[in-house]
Fold this protein.
Amino acid sequence: MVVVTRCRLVRMLTAMGVLIVLLAGCGRPALGAGGDTQGDEHAEHGGPIQPVKTTEADWRGVAGALGRMGTLWGETVYRVGFPRRDLTVTSRGVRIKAGFALGSYAAFVRYRDGETMVMGDLVVTEDELPKVTDALQHNGISQTAVHKHLLAHEPPVWWTHIHAEGREPVTIARAIRAALDVTATPPPVTPPPPPPLDLDTAGIDAALGAAGTNDGGIYKFSFARKETVTSHRRVLLPAMGVSTGLNFQPTGGRKAAINGDFVMTESEVQHVIQALRAGGIEIVELHNHALNDQPRLFYLHFWAVGDGVTLAKALRVAVDSHNVQPAS
């Protein structure tokens, strides 16, 4: 996507009567997936661009290019997962399940102007990271973050966020597939029914004021920002990864490991950190997922192991410290 800003012509007459034309606002860089002209775009072009409804059939080409089917969320976000079931990762003595913290994904959304935006997160080993970076860059996929979701863990694993925009979603999907193909990401399988959860789910729900979901044996919660979030004038939806996600992995005796991330504005960051630490929850990483979101958002990953309800009560204080509501 290329955005050309409108140049303003300012004419000034010198004392000798010579007309000098100054071009104000010209010469700015073209805006691609990593540009940063969001504020001017709103001022010059009107309001944010809304997503359009789609069907599963609209994304068949994307599914074919990626070699797996996705799930359509709210008739707008086509989200495809690439769980790293091949990895045996241990952190603080806890064997990390793929659905807990090792879930790569790409989320596709079509907009009213015909453009498609893709946001996602790829889980890669330390050895895979340089090859994935080269594949993404070679194929025009922007990287917007490289970081970790876990504290001390073996083997070393990294997470890299991706962003792309264009009129050909299948072309973008092929580029993402090229990056996946330099990893050991396994092919898709039909997931079995989720196992029972050794957790007091009713107590956790009550503590968080929301209803969790048993996703393959991981108890998950999602909270959406209450305000409109955009990137390149396009509205970002919670299923694109713009949400606070809380994950509980049972560890026995109704205890759980918790992991996930909070999505916060600048003014909320310290309040969330203080709330988490007051509840004995460790901070893993504070960073951005996007290069030009509006409002500017920060993401914080966390970790703790303990009684599920006690941890949920501590998380609730942090949830109440930022402007979110349970995602629909």
Q: What stands out?
A: Residues 56-326 form one domain. The longest strand covers residues 116-125. The helical segments are 38-45, 60-66, 98-101, 129-138, 169-180, 201-208, 269-278, 308-319. The chain has two domains: 8-45, 56-326.
